[in-house]
Amino acid sequence: MDRPIYLDYNATTPLASEVIDDMIPFMKEHFGNPSSSHYYGYEPRKAIEKARQRVARLINCEPGEIIFTSGATESNNHALRGIAESCREKGNHIITTAIEHPAIIEPCLYLMNKGFEITFLPVDHYGRVDLDRLEKEIRPETILISVMHANNEVGTVQPLSSIKSIIGERDIVFHTDAAQSAGKIKTDVKELGVDLLSLAGHKLYAPKGIGALYVREGVKLPRFIHGAGQEKGLRAGTENVIEIIGLGKACELAADNFGDNFENMKKTRDLLAEKLMEAFPEAKINGHPLEILPNTLSISFPGTEANQILGKLDSVAASGGAACHSGEVKVSHVLDAMGIPMDYAKGTLRFSTGRFTTTEQILQASEDIIEAVKSIAD
Ligand SMILES: Cc1ncc(COP(=O)(O)O)c(C=O)c1O
Q1: What's the rounded mean pLDDT across residues 235-251?
Q2: What is the pLDDT of residue 378?
Q3: Is the pLDDT of residue 55 over 90?
C-alpha cells in the first residue's frame, strides 16, 4: 500500500531537502564545539551566527535578539516563567487566551500554583479574542500578555497589532506563540508589536527539537538554563549546531519562497474545502473566514465522530478535534472555547496542507474522506 496522503502539516513538516543538504557537513567534517577557540570551533561558530541572521530576517529583528531553544515549548516556558520571575515585584497578573496550545496553558497553570493570577480570555465563535474584554482585564498588576499568533487547530489569526495598540505605553511585556504562523503568514515582530516571540523549527521544514525565542532588545529576561555562557548566558549548554543550521536554512527558504508556498497551501486547502462542502452541505468550517492560516481546514461533520472517521481513513493522515476515551467523547478545548455545538465538535477533523501538497493528492484525499464520512453517517 502507498503511504497515506499527508494532510497534517500543522502537526509537523518533513525536512526540506535544502535543509538536509546544509546540515550534512556539520554531521561529518565540521563537528567542532562552537566555543572552541581552535580551528574546529570556527566553522560551527560562523554557521550558528549565519543561522541567527536567517531566523532574524524571517521575523524582521536583529540577529542579537534571537536565542536558540529546543522548540516552541521551551521558548514559551522561558518567556512566561522568565517574565513572571523578573517582574514579580511589579505584579502577579498574566493575561492569555482560552485557546492556547498546552505549551502556554501548562506553564500558566504552573505559575498559578506559584501565586500568579491568570486570566484566560474567552474567544468568539471564530476563535478571536474580544479586544474590549482584553482591555477591561488589564490591571495595574498585569505584567505579561501572551496571545498566540495563529491557532494550531482552527487556524484563526489573532489581531496582535491591535492588542499592542491597547497595551500602548503600559509597562506590560507582550509575548506571542508563533509556532504555527512563522513561514505561513507574515510574522514581523515590529508590525505585530511583540516583545517576545516563540518559534518551532519542525513546523517550517526544519528538524524537531529546535526552535527560537525572539527577545526584543531591552526586555529583561532571566536565564532559563544555568551553566556556561552560551546564547548570551540565557540558555546554557553546547549548541545544537546541526539543527540550528537546519532552522536557519528553513527560515531562509520560508522567506525567499513565501509567495509560492502561500499560494500552494491556500490553493490545495481551498480545493479540499470546496470538495468536502459540495459533498456535505450540512458540514461547517471552523475558524475565521478571512483571518486564518492559508493551510488549515477545520471542518465539522454533524452526526459523526472524528475518531471513527479517522479509523476508516487509512489513506489520509489528518487530526481529530475530539477524542473518545472509555466511551466518552472529549472535545478539544479550542472548539469548546469557540462554542462549537457538541454535535458538530464531535465530528471535527483538521486537515493542514503544506509546501509539498499537490492538487492530485487533494483530489484523491477528498474522494477518500467523502467515502469515510458517508460510511459513518449512514
Ligand atoms: C501553537 C503551538 N505552540 C507550541 C507548540 C509546541 O511546539 P514544540 O513541540 O516544537 O515545542 C505547537 C506544536 O504543536 C503549536 O502548534
Answers
A1: 98
A2: 64
A3: yes
Return the CATH fold of 258-377: Aspartate Aminotransferase, domain 1 (3.90.1150)
If one counts every other C-beta atom within 10 angstroms of the C-beta of residue 20, the result is: 15
- Take atom 16 of ligand 1 and give the residue whose Cα is closest: 152
Written as nine digits, the cell of 217 is 532588545
Would you call 61 a catalytic residue per the annotation?
no
DSSP state of 65: G
376 Cα: distance to centroid of ligand 1 (angstroms): 31
Ligand 1: centre distance to CA 106 (Å):
12
**Ligand 1 centre distance from Cα of residue 46 (Å):** 28
The model's pLDDT over 265-286, given as tens digits with 9 standing for 90+, comes to 999 999 999 999 999 999 999 9
16 to each of 21, 38, 87, 241, how far by Cα in Å? Answer: 9, 32, 40, 17
Name every protein residue with a CB atom under 6 angstroms from any ligand 1 atom. Answer: 71-73, 101, 103, 148, 152, 177, 179-180, 200, 202, 211
How many angstroms separate the CA atoms of 345 and 162, rounded? 29
Compute, in angstroms, the gap from residue 12 CA to the centroid of ligand 1: 9
Q: Which of 61, 108, 251, 324 is catalytic?
A: 324
Domain regions of the chain by residue span: 17-256, 258-377
Whole-model pTM: value is 0.97
Most informative mutation of 77, 152, 240 for ligand 1 (most atoms within 8 A of CB): 152
pLDDT digits (tens, 9 = 90+) for 306-347: 999 999 999 999 999 767 666 777 899 999 999 999 999 999
| pLDDT tens by residue, 81-108 | 999 999 999 999 999 999 999 999 999 9
Q: How far apart are CA 295 and CA 355, in angstroms?
A: 9
Architecture of the domain delimited by 17-256: 3-Layer(aba) Sandwich (3.40)
Q: How far apart are CA 136 and CA 218, in angstroms?
A: 27
